Amino acid sequence: MKKELMAALAIARKDLRTEWRTRESLNASLSFALVILVLFSFAFDLDRDERLAISGGLLWLVYAFAGALIVNRSFARELPNDCLEVLIASVPGWAIFLGKSIACFLLLLIVEIVSLPIFGLFYNIHWAASILPIILVMALSTWGITVVGSALSAVTVNVRLRELMLPVLLYPLMIPLLIGAMELTSGLLNGNAVLSDVRLLIVYDVMFTALALYLIEFILVI
Amino acid sequence: MRAVAADRVWKYFGDFPALRGASFEVSKGACLALLGRNGAGKTTLLRILAHLSKPTKGEVEIAGRIGYLGHGIGVYDDLSAFENLVLFGQFGGVENPRQAATEALERVGLTRVKDGLAREFSRGMRQRLAIARAFLHDPDLLLLDEPFTSLDDRAVAVLQQLLGSARARGSTIVMSTHQIREAMELATDVALLERGKIVFSGPRSSEMLLDPGWLYRNYGEGAQG
User: Fold this and answer.
1) Structural contact between residues B7 and B58, judged by C-beta atoms closer than 8 angstroms
2) What is the dihedral of CA B43, B46, B47, B49, to 10 degrees?
3) A148 near A100, Cβ under 8 Å?
4) More confident residue, A19 or A49
5) Average per-residue pLDDT for chain A
6) Cα separation of A155 and A7, whole Å?
7) What ipTM is given for this predicted complex?
8) Of residues A98, A53, A111, A70, the one with CA closest to residue A216
9) How confident is residue B179, by pLDDT bands cut at 50, 70 and 90?
10) Is residue A170 a contact partner of residue A148, using CB atoms and an 8 Å limit?
11) Across the strands, what pairs with A189?
């Protein structure tokens, strides 16, 4: 078990290292998030209450789309030189999945942390006062996005149109998570959040993590 | 003692049976040459042994750690040669991956370029890196899919040397190949696949060594008797 967990961490480190060198998904995801946030701020002339009302929804839609760009590369990164074959022959499927999910989680978290101040600036929303609960919601929701996204990345890795297939499968599965994250984030920015709603995110994360860890071997080895 | 056993293994791709009840055993420390024409099912069988694919029917048993060398080189272009080997050392549970990587690079003659990215290597250097990767963790079982195909002479020499050391250490080797002469020199056992079926499985005989076509003539498609 310890050996497998070390292998999972090694996979996560490897993915982060190669991403740092190529910046293939981080650049795309970050620029997408920033451009959408900036464009929306110019597209709609909203008063303060309206801005607060849509804040959670806007943020999490941007994060969900940015997340899809990151998870899309997760297993596809293993295709050149048939590295996925060697990985499957060397490491149990659940450890590969865990390593990939950790890497995607950290990458998406970077995108979120960089884009949050830009969001605050362009929409004139003060988020710093509720930073700790926002980070909690971000962490839980981001883990949910990356777990489901990484599992679907494994499902679609050998599909010819995987860049199209992954979002088609991913977004419907994320609906309960996104609704919870949007409501909580809007509530936190408005100052009327009910933090017990976090339970929805926890249940989603636990359920999909367990399901993905169980199913990944069947997905990878066919 | 058995290192590998396949018991009536079937594999279907859609309606097409790529393997039809393949059964064989390999003893610990033996070297099995898996022969057969293109499409006979060699790669499918090796992929099943490497846990890359599940048999539709039948069972396989593998003892110990696997080293796999497939058609692709299986190394990361955006990591250096050293980083690649440390990574695979960690996967293989090597106690000191950095030291193992350093020694492996020395064995395949890549010490000088250990910090170079794999993408910047020539084809021959990439092949040697792939060979170092497959042998790095001293696997108990080596699964090699056409290992000599398109290797340059230096890589062939490195591979032969590492195969010899692995044999001396007691590792079991299963390799598919079209290079019958090289295979017969290394093999202790031979299996011939024809359209997904093992038509011959047994020890390598002196006839096979002297006449590489002997096996196909006597057991291959269209063989007499």
Assistant:
1) yes
2) 160
3) no
4) A19
5) 92
6) 21
7) 0.87
8) A98
9) confident
10) yes
11) none
Q: How many CB pairs under 8 A join A and B?
A: 69
CB-nearest to B91 from A17, A18, A90 is A90
Question: Quick one: closest CA in A to B118, which residue?
Answer: A81
**A145: distance to nearest CA of chain B, Å?**
26
**What's the pLDDT score for residue B9?**
94
Residues of chain A positioned with their CB less than 8 A from the CB of B90? 6-7, 10
Half-sphere exposure of B1 (CA within 13 A, CB side): 10
The CA distance from A107 to B64, in Å, is 36
Which of A73, A78, A79, A85 has the highest number of chain B CBs within 10 A, making it the mutation to test binding with B?
A: A85
Q: How many CA atoms lie within 13 A of B2 on its CB side?
A: 9
DSSP state, residue B117:
B
% of chain B beyond a pLDDT of 70: 98
The whole-number pLDDT of residue B222 equals: 66
Chain A residues bordering chain B (beta-carbon distance below 8 Å): 3, 6-7, 10, 14, 17-18, 21-22, 80-83, 85-91, 221-222
State how far the Cα of A138 lies from the Cα of A127, in Å rounded to an integer: 13
